[in-house]
Amino acid sequence: MSDATNDEGRTGDGTRAVRAGLPEPVKYEPTLPGPVFAAHFHLPGEVTGPYAYGRDDNPTWTLLERAIGELEAPGAEGVETLVFASGMAAISSVLFSQLRAGDAVVLPSDGYQVLPLVRAQLEAYGIEVRTAPTAGNAQLEVLEGARLLWIESPSNPGLDVCDIRRLVDAAHAGGALVAVDNTLATPLGQRPLELGADFSVASGTKQLTGHGDVLLGYVTGRDLEAMAAVRRWRKIVGAISGPMEAWLAHRSIATLQLRVDRQNATALRVAETLRQRPEVSDLRYPGLPEDPSHKIASQQMHRYGCVVSFTLPTRARAERFLTALRLVEDATSFGGVRSTAERRRRWGGDAVPEGFIRMSVGAEDPADLVADLLRALDESSD
User: Fold this and answer.
1) Where are the transmembrane segments (predicted)?
2) Is the full-model pTM beyond 0.70?
């Protein structure tokens, strides 16, 4: 959890976040150049430069991709990052660029709620889809012969954690590629490539950018041939980030370590408070020592995330609780500086109880946030 320079001589997380992706300083030029709005670039003669057409590359993307790569794989060589219009665009780019009819893919059965739609589309293309829960490394049991293993750890919204390195080793032994959805952890909480994964994929909409005003996704990979296929997929479908979104994301990364540390510390305090309430059940937060995921999370995560999940006795109780909150917005998504919470079952895609709450802890004063939660719990009681 320390931000000090580590044993490998790398600078600390805060320093890397503040400096990530910045160009060499030029006198009288801004530290972070503004967004480049261009559909095309001057291109006389042969195509030899990096920028020709706005669907393929953009200088603002380049700086952001460099920044994310420096966070996901600090000091690593031969690693490439590509940014996308959304997290789902990034997820789709890996799955649909690496799989062919007749291949098998292993997905988490408890992952992000859009994955069932992805499964249906994969199966329509003749790809075999196998699923297993994140907890207990259950995906190992259905891995044989698969072309790709998709891991989501911690899982959303249940917050289960698997042993990424163990799963990676087993997958690679069988010739499979491994992608890890790193959205909930962020690159400051977990670095999948250092755990052996081939791809680290995330929605930059969430805590990476942290202000609830940008849709963004990215893929970081160390297999350059596989990443070339991801880049080709992005070109074909045009799932590109706008330059303004990319610039906003890069600007926001400078405060990532400050936000993550504040939100993680407050999330732990919130979890410790909620575990004392008799009406709260199935409380999950990997940072709690008694959480079922804590042991393995403590071995592979540097920070435990900003999301806390728990269940209230009934749907009505959960809705009254959400209505009573004053500092916490009833909204979807997570990772923003303003706390949010929602009854996840309202979407219909998650196998959770009617009273299940996913809460994203923001950057409010911890004491104020805890007081708001306790007051709302009291006011919403039967």
Assistant:
1) none
2) yes
